[in-house]
Amino acid sequence: MQTTSIVFQGSPLAHYVLARADDALVLGHRLSEWCGHAPILEEDLALTNIALDLIGQARALYTYAAELEGRGHDEDDLAYLREDRQFHNLLLLEQPNGDFAVTCVRLLLFSAFAEPYWRLMRASSDAQLAAIAAKAEKECAYHVRHASQWVIRLGDGTEESHRRTQDALDTLWVYTGELFETSADEQALIAQGIAADPQAILPIWQNTVNAVLTEATLQAPSVSWMQTGGRRGLHSEHLGHMLAEMQYLQRTYPGAEW
Amino acid sequence: MYTQALNVVTEKLGDSEAEQRFLERIDAEERIEPNDWMPEAYRRLLIRQISQHAHSEVVGMLPEGNWITRAPSLRRKAALLAKVQDEGGHGLYLYAAAETLGISREEMVEQLLSGRAKYSSIFNYPTLTWADIGAIGWLVDGAAIMNQIPLCRCSYGPYARAMIRICREESFHQRQGYEIMLTLARGTPEQKAMAQDALNRWWWPVLMMFGPPDHASQHSEASMRWKVKRFSNDTLRQKFIDATVPQAQFLGLTIPDPELRFNAETGHWETGPIDWEEFHRVLAGYGPCNKERLAARRKAHEEGAWVREAALAYAAKQKQRITQQAA
Ligand SMILES: [Fe+2]
Ligand SMILES: [Fe+2]
Description:
The complex is a heterodimer of chains A (about 260) and B (about 325). Chain A is mainly alpha-helical and about 260 residues long.
């Protein structure tokens, strides 16, 4: 039987770019689920802004990944025709939105990494990535600010909001280890000056997150085990549902233009 | 979106000296500003119309929001997100415009959630396929523009200014929706059928967006006199029909009205009768999605209560910290 799925076959650099595109798309998609349902109208707009930034980043990265792959795929083929085991996003980003605290904490934990990541990537020896980084850095700086403000308000707000935000932190913390993992292929890209070294980002991330948690009167959880697998295509059960919904039209009408 | 002549206040026009001066200003096409004297009935009419309009923008986010996570390409997903975001922004400007008349946003939201305030009947219809996203942009935003362009000259300044900004975005939405329809109409047979089905379902409800026919709409005298409303429901509806029929023809789609014909003498397209019973039924709460739409707004509001409380509590603590520092 014919399948509509594709398998991405590219160089280590192409795979590296693809994984970053998956990060942006998956988080952008999650945030877009809030549109029309946020706690205040202003947040419908703000979360949508952030979703739009991330989907924009995903498009630029998918287009570049497809170009590097050189097999005639485009951004939509990569987003809509790969199966979940072919996605390489961080597990953190596919976690369900939960309540507003989960959404804000997830955004903080990721953006506090993404901002310095893209800042370092501006110096990438890969000109395309450096160009994407220049725009993404500015966008992620806003995402960190927005998420920080909310985590502080919620952490230092009411008893209920404090409890919910601490719960969100306790739930999501096990997914933060993955931010700093590197594969052997990535080590080589780091050595070539193409990819930023997550180890250089770790202290910056810790500073940002700790400062916010202190102001928010929240405790960084101590955990002895970090979840891992997203970068290798081993996901939580949530991603399959997200993709089933997202990919439904492309899969129902193979080859149609929309 | 979207105004609709739903609940227009009927008031006898008064004859006090202040009111005479007010009417002279209206006649001279002056803009009335929040601190100017205005008849109570004028204020009430505007509060009702602007808040209904704001609610329509916000409830209108739901039917289109229904397809954000299923948009068929990344470009369409981004465009739809941005469009629904614009509608939320329209809601915000309009709530702000209504607030200049002395009603709070909380009060207006409460009126919506309790079911006392109305919003445009069109949003009580479901979005069943992707083509509905095209049809809404093309037809619903298209009808909104017809309704709203004259409101850019509305006598109340804050409303008129909000409309100018909003109309610019609505025309962008309309073009975007039409472009979705064009893509489907030029696509596979299944896509073309999807586009036709969407037109079949949206056509009549969209014509109802302009409100009841003139002979049955006895309420617009004051609104016309005060230059809030400038054209009758039927006039605007006819303008919309005349503009839209050729667009449907260009798409190669059929308007679902066997009686539709061009009157060469008047130069207008004439339609068969509109089912006003359906209109009144939907307004009364028995449209296909009235319950879902209100339930979704209530759910967002209730589940967001702890967030809003936290923001207030935090702001109060901050204020206290600042006063303590100053002391
Ligand atoms: Fe609108
Ligand atoms: Fe619109």
